[in-house]
Amino acid sequence: LEQILQGYSWVFTLDNHYVIGGQGDRIVSGLAELGLSGQIQVRQFGVFNIPKCGQNQEVLRAHGLDAESLAFEINKTIM
């Protein structure tokens, strides 16, 4: 993980389910174990509350996980 993230200041993770216990949490935990928490910022995307119901694209959009929402949030974060 340390070698892969060398030279990066941001990591964005995406879970299409609850964030808690997902890959984003594992990456945050790995960064902490390596002592990199203060050097690399992490922004997690995923479901933080009770999931919405509907068709796939509707649910993704409702949670900000569709491509347009993700691009907007990532650009806003790094600018």
Average pLDDT number: 94
The percent of residues in helical segments reads 40-55%
The CATH level-2 architecture is identified as: 3-Layer(aba) Sandwich
CATH class: Alpha Beta
Q: From the helix content, strand content and strand pairing, which structural class follows?
A: alpha+beta
The domain count comes to 1
CATH topology: Rossmann fold
Structural topology:
Layout: H1 2-5, E1 10-18, H2 23-33, E2 41-47, H3 56-62, H4 67-78
Parallel strand pairs: 1-2
Description:
The protein is an alpha+beta fold and 79 residues long. The protein has a single domain, classed as Rossmann fold (3-Layer(aba) Sandwich), CATH 3.40.50. The chain contains four helices and two strands. The protein has helices at residues 2-5, 23-33, 56-62, 67-78; strands spanning 10-18, 41-47. It has a two-stranded parallel ribbon. It is globular and about 40 Å long. The mean pLDDT is 94.
What is the compact description of this entry?
By secondary structure, this protein is α+β, with helices and mostly antiparallel strands.
Key attributes of the depicted protein:
single chain, 79 residues, alpha+beta, Rossmann fold
